[in-house]
Amino acid sequence: MTAADRDPLPSWREGPSKARLLGFVEAVSHPGSAEFVAPEERIAVFDNDGTLWSEQPMYGQLAFALERARTLLLQRPELERDPRVAAAAAGDLQTLMGQGMRGLLELVGHTHAGMTNAAFSALVRRWLQDARHPDFGVPYTRLVYQPMLELLALLRAHDFRLWIVTGGGAEFVRVFAEELYGIPPERVIGSTIRLRYGEENGEPALWREPTVDFIDDGDGKPVGIERAIGRRPIAAFGNSDGDLAMLRWTTAAPGPRLGLLLHHDDGEREVAYDRHSPFGRLDRGLELAAVHGWSLVSLRRDWHRVFPAPLDTARPEPQP
Protein backbone atom coordinates (compact mmCIF):
# COMPACT_ATOMS: atom_id res chain seq x y z
CA MET A 1 0.00 0.00 0.00
CA THR A 2 1.41 3.40 -0.99
CA ALA A 3 1.32 6.57 1.09
CA ALA A 4 -1.32 7.97 -1.28
CA ASP A 5 -3.49 4.91 -0.64
CA ARG A 6 -3.18 5.40 3.11
CA ASP A 7 -3.86 9.13 2.95
CA PRO A 8 -4.52 10.77 -0.42
CA LEU A 9 -4.59 14.22 1.22
CA PRO A 10 -1.49 14.32 3.45
CA SER A 11 -1.21 18.12 3.34
CA TRP A 12 -4.69 18.47 4.84
CA ARG A 13 -5.06 18.34 8.61
CA GLU A 14 -7.54 15.90 10.06
CA GLY A 15 -10.86 17.61 10.65
CA PRO A 16 -14.32 18.29 9.19
CA SER A 17 -13.06 19.76 5.88
CA LYS A 18 -10.82 16.81 5.04
CA ALA A 19 -13.38 14.28 6.24
CA ARG A 20 -16.08 15.85 4.08
CA LEU A 21 -13.88 15.79 0.98
CA LEU A 22 -12.94 12.15 1.44
CA GLY A 23 -16.50 11.14 2.29
CA PHE A 24 -17.95 12.93 -0.73
CA VAL A 25 -15.49 11.38 -3.17
CA GLU A 26 -16.07 7.89 -1.76
CA ALA A 27 -19.87 8.28 -1.78
CA VAL A 28 -20.20 9.46 -5.38
CA SER A 29 -17.65 7.03 -6.84
CA HIS A 30 -18.44 3.76 -5.04
CA PRO A 31 -20.83 1.65 -7.13
CA GLY A 32 -22.67 0.34 -4.08
CA SER A 33 -23.28 3.78 -2.60
CA ALA A 34 -26.76 5.31 -2.45
CA GLU A 35 -25.15 8.54 -3.69
CA PHE A 36 -23.24 6.97 -6.59
CA VAL A 37 -22.80 9.30 -9.58
CA ALA A 38 -21.98 7.95 -13.03
CA PRO A 39 -18.46 8.90 -14.21
CA GLU A 40 -19.74 11.12 -17.03
CA GLU A 41 -21.56 13.24 -14.42
CA ARG A 42 -18.57 13.50 -12.06
CA ILE A 43 -17.56 17.02 -13.03
CA ALA A 44 -15.61 19.31 -10.70
CA VAL A 45 -14.85 22.96 -11.43
CA PHE A 46 -12.04 25.02 -9.91
CA ASP A 47 -11.33 28.71 -9.84
CA ASN A 48 -7.63 29.40 -10.47
CA ASP A 49 -6.37 32.60 -8.79
CA GLY A 50 -6.43 32.14 -5.03
CA THR A 51 -7.80 28.61 -5.36
CA LEU A 52 -5.10 26.69 -7.22
CA TRP A 53 -2.26 29.21 -6.96
CA SER A 54 -1.50 32.44 -5.13
CA GLU A 55 -3.19 35.68 -6.21
CA GLN A 56 -1.45 38.19 -3.93
CA PRO A 57 -0.23 40.93 -4.09
CA MET A 58 -1.94 40.86 -7.52
CA TYR A 59 -3.23 38.35 -10.06
CA GLY A 60 -0.40 36.72 -12.00
CA GLN A 61 -1.93 37.78 -15.29
CA LEU A 62 -2.11 41.38 -14.08
CA ALA A 63 1.62 41.31 -13.30
CA PHE A 64 2.14 40.07 -16.86
CA ALA A 65 -0.08 42.87 -18.21
CA LEU A 66 1.85 45.55 -16.29
CA GLU A 67 5.10 44.38 -17.83
CA ARG A 68 3.51 44.30 -21.28
CA ALA A 69 2.22 47.86 -20.79
CA ARG A 70 5.72 49.13 -20.02
CA THR A 71 7.09 47.35 -23.08
CA LEU A 72 4.34 48.70 -25.35
CA LEU A 73 4.86 52.28 -24.17
CA LEU A 74 8.51 52.07 -25.13
CA GLN A 75 7.50 50.87 -28.58
CA ARG A 76 4.48 53.15 -29.02
CA PRO A 77 4.62 56.26 -26.78
CA GLU A 78 1.23 57.44 -28.07
CA LEU A 79 -0.41 54.72 -25.95
CA GLU A 80 0.22 56.89 -22.91
CA ARG A 81 -2.99 58.69 -23.88
CA ASP A 82 -4.88 55.54 -22.85
CA PRO A 83 -5.40 55.92 -19.07
CA ARG A 84 -5.46 52.15 -18.51
CA VAL A 85 -2.14 51.57 -20.27
CA ALA A 86 -0.56 54.58 -18.57
CA ALA A 87 -1.74 53.42 -15.12
CA ALA A 88 -0.48 49.90 -15.81
CA ALA A 89 2.93 51.11 -16.97
CA ALA A 90 3.20 53.21 -13.80
CA GLY A 91 2.11 50.31 -11.59
CA ASP A 92 -0.89 52.35 -10.40
CA LEU A 93 -3.00 49.47 -9.07
CA GLN A 94 -5.44 51.77 -7.27
CA THR A 95 -6.54 53.35 -10.55
CA LEU A 96 -6.74 49.98 -12.29
CA MET A 97 -8.75 48.30 -9.54
CA GLY A 98 -11.14 51.25 -9.44
CA GLN A 99 -12.30 50.22 -12.92
CA GLY A 100 -13.42 46.76 -11.80
CA MET A 101 -13.03 43.46 -13.62
CA ARG A 102 -14.14 44.94 -16.95
CA GLY A 103 -11.49 47.64 -16.70
CA LEU A 104 -8.83 45.02 -15.97
CA LEU A 105 -9.95 42.95 -18.93
CA GLU A 106 -9.95 46.00 -21.19
CA LEU A 107 -6.33 46.52 -20.12
CA VAL A 108 -5.71 42.87 -20.97
CA GLY A 109 -7.29 43.51 -24.36
CA HIS A 110 -4.89 46.38 -25.06
CA THR A 111 -1.76 44.63 -23.81
CA HIS A 112 -2.51 41.09 -25.04
CA ALA A 113 -3.82 41.92 -28.53
CA GLY A 114 -2.30 42.82 -31.89
CA MET A 115 -0.66 39.42 -32.29
CA THR A 116 -1.59 35.85 -33.07
CA ASN A 117 -2.69 33.46 -30.37
CA ALA A 118 0.48 31.43 -30.95
CA ALA A 119 2.66 34.51 -30.44
CA PHE A 120 0.75 35.38 -27.27
CA SER A 121 1.24 31.89 -25.83
CA ALA A 122 4.97 32.13 -26.53
CA LEU A 123 5.12 35.48 -24.69
CA VAL A 124 3.35 33.98 -21.66
CA ARG A 125 5.71 31.00 -21.58
CA ARG A 126 8.76 33.27 -21.63
CA TRP A 127 7.30 35.47 -18.92
CA LEU A 128 6.55 32.48 -16.68
CA GLN A 129 10.15 31.35 -17.06
CA ASP A 130 11.66 34.76 -16.27
CA ALA A 131 9.23 36.51 -13.91
CA ARG A 132 9.62 36.32 -10.14
CA HIS A 133 6.98 36.87 -7.50
CA PRO A 134 7.61 40.27 -5.84
CA ASP A 135 7.38 38.93 -2.27
CA PHE A 136 8.59 35.33 -2.46
CA GLY A 137 11.18 35.85 -5.19
CA VAL A 138 10.34 32.58 -6.95
CA PRO A 139 8.62 31.82 -10.28
CA TYR A 140 4.84 32.12 -10.12
CA THR A 141 4.60 28.46 -11.07
CA ARG A 142 6.09 27.52 -7.68
CA LEU A 143 3.16 29.14 -5.91
CA VAL A 144 0.61 26.43 -6.59
CA TYR A 145 -1.10 25.02 -3.51
CA GLN A 146 0.07 21.54 -2.55
CA PRO A 147 -3.22 20.60 -0.82
CA MET A 148 -5.14 21.46 -3.99
CA LEU A 149 -2.74 19.43 -6.15
CA GLU A 150 -3.50 16.46 -3.87
CA LEU A 151 -7.23 17.11 -4.22
CA LEU A 152 -6.95 17.23 -8.02
CA ALA A 153 -5.09 13.90 -7.97
CA LEU A 154 -7.70 12.33 -5.69
CA LEU A 155 -10.58 13.42 -7.93
CA ARG A 156 -8.75 12.29 -11.06
CA ALA A 157 -8.14 8.87 -9.50
CA HIS A 158 -11.91 8.57 -8.98
CA ASP A 159 -12.77 9.40 -12.59
CA PHE A 160 -13.77 13.01 -12.10
CA ARG A 161 -13.50 15.31 -15.09
CA LEU A 162 -11.74 18.45 -13.90
CA TRP A 163 -12.22 21.94 -15.31
CA ILE A 164 -10.75 25.33 -14.49
CA VAL A 165 -13.29 28.17 -14.48
CA THR A 166 -11.35 31.40 -14.07
CA GLY A 167 -12.02 35.10 -14.27
CA GLY A 168 -8.57 35.38 -15.83
CA GLY A 169 -7.88 35.00 -19.51
CA ALA A 170 -8.55 31.54 -20.90
CA GLU A 171 -5.59 31.68 -23.27
CA PHE A 172 -3.27 32.84 -20.48
CA VAL A 173 -4.18 29.96 -18.15
CA ARG A 174 -4.15 27.38 -20.96
CA VAL A 175 -0.41 27.93 -21.36
CA PHE A 176 0.38 26.33 -17.97
CA ALA A 177 -2.75 24.48 -16.81
CA GLU A 178 -1.74 21.05 -18.07
CA GLU A 179 1.83 21.22 -16.77
CA LEU A 180 0.88 22.56 -13.32
CA TYR A 181 -2.48 20.89 -12.70
CA GLY A 182 -2.85 18.09 -15.23
CA ILE A 183 -5.85 19.91 -16.72
CA PRO A 184 -5.65 20.11 -20.53
CA PRO A 185 -6.27 23.43 -22.33
CA GLU A 186 -9.63 22.37 -23.69
CA ARG A 187 -10.89 22.15 -20.09
CA VAL A 188 -10.06 25.75 -19.23
CA ILE A 189 -12.97 28.21 -19.22
CA GLY A 190 -12.01 31.85 -18.80
CA SER A 191 -12.51 35.42 -19.90
CA THR A 192 -11.74 36.02 -23.57
CA ILE A 193 -10.98 38.79 -26.00
CA ARG A 194 -12.19 38.69 -29.59
CA LEU A 195 -10.33 36.42 -32.01
CA ARG A 196 -10.21 36.86 -35.77
CA TYR A 197 -9.17 34.28 -38.33
CA GLY A 198 -6.59 35.41 -40.86
CA GLU A 199 -3.19 34.54 -42.30
CA GLU A 200 0.39 35.22 -41.33
CA ASN A 201 3.12 34.60 -43.87
CA GLY A 202 0.68 32.56 -45.93
CA GLU A 203 -0.32 30.35 -42.99
CA PRO A 204 -3.68 30.33 -41.18
CA ALA A 205 -3.67 32.10 -37.82
CA LEU A 206 -5.96 33.43 -35.11
CA TRP A 207 -5.41 37.13 -34.37
CA ARG A 208 -6.18 38.71 -31.01
CA GLU A 209 -8.22 41.93 -31.13
CA PRO A 210 -8.42 44.53 -28.30
CA THR A 211 -12.09 43.90 -27.53
CA VAL A 212 -13.46 42.06 -24.49
CA ASP A 213 -15.55 39.15 -25.71
CA PHE A 214 -16.69 37.41 -22.49
CA ILE A 215 -16.11 38.01 -18.76
CA ASP A 216 -15.97 34.70 -16.92
CA ASP A 217 -16.40 36.08 -13.41
CA GLY A 218 -19.28 36.35 -10.98
CA ASP A 219 -22.55 35.63 -12.77
CA GLY A 220 -20.57 34.84 -15.92
CA LYS A 221 -19.12 31.64 -14.47
CA PRO A 222 -22.31 29.53 -14.67
CA VAL A 223 -22.80 30.86 -18.22
CA GLY A 224 -19.28 29.82 -19.17
CA ILE A 225 -19.80 26.39 -17.61
CA GLU A 226 -23.03 25.80 -19.51
CA ARG A 227 -21.54 26.95 -22.81
CA ALA A 228 -18.42 24.82 -22.53
CA ILE A 229 -19.54 21.74 -20.59
CA GLY A 230 -23.28 21.43 -21.07
CA ARG A 231 -23.59 19.58 -17.77
CA ARG A 232 -23.96 20.88 -14.25
CA PRO A 233 -20.93 20.11 -12.05
CA ILE A 234 -21.34 18.20 -8.82
CA ALA A 235 -18.42 19.93 -7.07
CA ALA A 236 -17.12 23.50 -7.17
CA PHE A 237 -14.07 25.04 -5.52
CA GLY A 238 -13.33 28.75 -5.15
CA ASN A 239 -12.03 31.39 -2.76
CA SER A 240 -13.80 34.68 -3.43
CA ASP A 241 -17.16 36.35 -3.92
CA GLY A 242 -16.47 36.09 -7.65
CA ASP A 243 -17.00 32.34 -7.27
CA LEU A 244 -20.34 32.47 -5.43
CA ALA A 245 -22.53 32.12 -8.53
CA MET A 246 -20.48 29.11 -9.64
CA LEU A 247 -20.91 27.46 -6.24
CA ARG A 248 -24.64 28.24 -6.16
CA TRP A 249 -25.14 26.88 -9.68
CA THR A 250 -23.32 23.70 -8.71
CA THR A 251 -24.79 22.98 -5.28
CA ALA A 252 -28.41 24.09 -5.79
CA ALA A 253 -29.14 21.12 -8.07
CA PRO A 254 -30.51 17.87 -6.62
CA GLY A 255 -28.29 14.94 -5.72
CA PRO A 256 -24.94 14.83 -3.93
CA ARG A 257 -23.15 18.16 -4.27
CA LEU A 258 -20.08 19.79 -2.77
CA GLY A 259 -19.10 23.46 -2.55
CA LEU A 260 -15.85 24.69 -0.99
CA LEU A 261 -14.40 28.13 -0.36
CA LEU A 262 -10.80 28.69 0.70
CA HIS A 263 -10.37 31.33 3.38
CA HIS A 264 -6.92 32.91 3.21
CA ASP A 265 -6.34 33.51 6.92
CA ASP A 266 -2.67 32.51 7.14
CA GLY A 267 -0.45 35.58 7.20
CA GLU A 268 2.64 33.59 8.19
CA ARG A 269 2.91 31.05 5.38
CA GLU A 270 1.05 33.05 2.72
CA VAL A 271 -1.16 36.19 3.00
CA ALA A 272 -4.17 36.82 5.23
CA TYR A 273 -6.99 38.59 3.38
CA ASP A 274 -10.75 38.48 2.94
CA ARG A 275 -13.33 41.30 3.11
CA HIS A 276 -11.19 44.29 2.11
CA SER A 277 -8.76 42.83 -0.40
CA PRO A 278 -8.77 44.33 -3.92
CA PHE A 279 -7.87 40.85 -5.21
CA GLY A 280 -9.86 37.76 -4.27
CA ARG A 281 -12.24 39.59 -1.93
CA LEU A 282 -14.18 37.15 0.27
CA ASP A 283 -16.98 39.06 1.98
CA ARG A 284 -20.48 37.74 1.32
CA GLY A 285 -19.07 34.23 1.02
CA LEU A 286 -18.04 34.20 4.69
CA GLU A 287 -21.75 34.22 5.63
CA LEU A 288 -23.18 32.38 2.62
CA ALA A 289 -20.97 29.33 3.16
CA ALA A 290 -23.01 28.32 6.22
CA VAL A 291 -26.32 29.26 4.57
CA HIS A 292 -25.68 27.00 1.57
CA GLY A 293 -23.76 24.25 3.34
CA TRP A 294 -20.39 24.93 1.70
CA SER A 295 -17.11 24.03 3.38
CA LEU A 296 -15.16 27.10 4.48
CA VAL A 297 -11.57 25.89 4.55
CA SER A 298 -9.09 27.76 6.74
CA LEU A 299 -5.57 27.72 5.30
CA ARG A 300 -4.22 28.21 8.81
CA ARG A 301 -6.18 25.43 10.53
CA ASP A 302 -6.86 22.95 7.71
CA TRP A 303 -3.59 22.82 5.77
CA HIS A 304 -0.36 21.24 7.05
CA ARG A 305 1.53 22.94 4.25
CA VAL A 306 0.72 25.51 1.59
CA PHE A 307 3.25 25.16 -1.23
CA PRO A 308 4.88 22.02 -2.71
CA ALA A 309 8.38 23.11 -1.64
CA PRO A 310 9.56 25.46 1.11
CA LEU A 311 9.98 29.07 0.07
CA ASP A 312 12.98 31.04 1.26
CA THR A 313 10.85 33.82 2.69
CA ALA A 314 8.20 31.56 4.23
CA ARG A 315 7.97 31.55 8.00
CA PRO A 316 7.56 28.43 10.16
CA GLU A 317 4.27 26.60 10.03
CA PRO A 318 1.81 27.97 12.59
CA GLN A 319 0.22 25.73 15.17
CA PRO A 320 -3.53 25.08 14.82
Walkthrough of the structure:
The protein is an alpha/beta fold and 320 residues long. Helices cover 39% and strands 16% of the residues. The protein is built from 14 helices and 7 strands. It has a 7-stranded mixed β-sheet, sandwiched between helices. The longest helix has 16 residues, at 60-75.
Spans of 5+ residues with little confidence (pLDDT < 50)? Answer: 313-320
- Proportion of beta-strand residues: 15-25%
Structural class: alpha/beta
Average of pLDDT? 92
How is the biggest beta sheet arranged? 7 strands, mixed
Order of helices and strands: HHEHHHHHHEHHEEHEHEHEH
Number-wise, the strands total 7
- The shape, in one word, is globular
Spatial arrangement of strands, main beta sheet: 4-3-2-1-5-6-7
Helix content: 25-40%
Quote the distance from N terminus to C terminus: 29 Å
Helix segment tally: 14
